[in-house]
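Researcher: We plan to redesign the surface later, but first we want a full-length starting point. Tokens attached.
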């Protein structure tokens, strides 16, 4: 089966990635991803200029139908991750960066522009868990201005990580902005920001930061993820690929993301819960569905969701 995709001409021999933040904080975790035969590439934890400890624990909690997290951008700092992606790897890497401000974003991208790194970069515009910081991608004017500044100096491949949108007009507005720029891809969705889980037995929230508010992931977000992948695919220039992230637990979920137009598919909550074996299972389940339908390649059905 042909399970390949490509971003900006970079070939991925497999469609599967990790969702940034999961199994990607250390070089050991990143190596394990890149060495797995069912994984196509690895995305780093979003890097900030300086190393961060992140929010106080408990800050991640697995739910029956997903996850809630308020990690707070813990990471080993920009230098750690650019050193890693500058090394030779048999498979593609995506360097994820997240500033705590637009100025930080500019600084991070200037450092990449000035480096020898020629691979893929993803600007995270959607972290919901930095206390006191809004998600940039919900500020349309701010996003427009930031990308205007970025593309005045950044000449390397660049994609963006988006939060979920919930209004068709918002899809129109964000894609009208993104289509102005030579982006390689959008990665959609990030977690659904500021959900809240209540443990009835203890009558308490389940994570410490922000009084229990955190980003939602896993099974429960699949309909939102599929809607965002589909809506972005329908509106973005063909040159901008969509990486589908959010809610994948089974091969059928993967199939649905591809039908909606995803070029590649990231696994987060399920990777956290199941471990790296999730990729072998998802590959088997996806190939079974493809075989039953007479498909031999993702390209046979990518973006071909039927309407009624
Ligand atoms: O709290 C986090 O580190 C975090 N958590 C998320 O769910 N998405 C993000 O982009 C980030 Cl940066």
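Model: Full-length starting sequence:
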């Amino acid at each position: 089966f042909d399970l390949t995709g490509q971003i900006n001409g970079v070939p991925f021999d497999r469609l599967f990635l990790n969702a940034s933040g999961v199994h990607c904080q250390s070089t050991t975790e990143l190596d394990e991803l890149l060495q797995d035969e069912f994984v196509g590439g690895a995305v780093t934890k979003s890097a900030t200029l300086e190393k961060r400890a992140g929010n106080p624990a408990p800050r991640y909690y697995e739910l029956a139908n997903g996850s809630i997290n308020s990690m707070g951008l813990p990471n080993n700092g920009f230098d750690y991750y650019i050193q890693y992606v500058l090394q030779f790897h048999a498979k593609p890497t995506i360097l994820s960066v997240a500033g705590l401000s637009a100025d930080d974003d500019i600084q991070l991208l200037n450092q990449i522009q000035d480096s020898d790194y020629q691979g893929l970069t993803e600007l995270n515009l959607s972290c919901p868990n930095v206390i006191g910081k809004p998600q940039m991608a919900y500020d349309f004017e701010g996003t427009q201005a930031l990308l205007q500044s970025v593309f005045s100096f950044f000449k390397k491949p660049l994609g963006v990580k988006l939060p979920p949108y919930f209004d068709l007009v918002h899809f129109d507005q964000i894609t009208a902005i993104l289509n102005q720029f030579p982006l390689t891809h959008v990665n959609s969705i990030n977690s659904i920001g500021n959900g809240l889980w209540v443990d009835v037995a203890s009558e308490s929230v389940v994570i410490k930061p922000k009084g229990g508010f955190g980003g939602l992931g896993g099974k429960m977000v699949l309909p939102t993820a599929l809607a965002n992948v589909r809506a972005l695919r329908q509106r973005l220039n063909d040159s901008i690929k969509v990486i589908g992230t959010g809610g994948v637990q089974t091969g059928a979920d993967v199939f649905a993301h591809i039908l909606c137009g995803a070029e590649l598919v990231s696994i987060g909550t399920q990777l956290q819960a199941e471990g790296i074996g999730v990729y072998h299972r998802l590959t088997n389940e996806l190939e079974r569905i493809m075989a039953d339908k007479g498909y031999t390649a993702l390209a046979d059905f990518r973006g071909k969701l039927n309407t009624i």
